[in-house]
Amino acid sequence: SLYNSHVEIRSRQDLFLQISRKHL
User: Per UniProt, which keywords does this protein have (predicted)?
Assistant: First the structure.
């Protein structure tokens, strides 16, 4: 569903931010 995809995108962004912080 559209809502489900939105949540998935949010979770991916959070994961990306966590990975970026680890590299910094």
Answer: Mitochondrion
Query: Rounded CA gap, 18 and 4, in Å?
Result: 21
- Token output for 2: 């559209």
Positive/negative CA dihedral, 15, 21, 22, 24: positive
Question: Is pLDDT of 20 > 70?
Answer: yes
Neighbours of 8 (CB within 10 A): 10
* pTM given for the model: 0.45
Report the SS3 class of residue 24.
coil
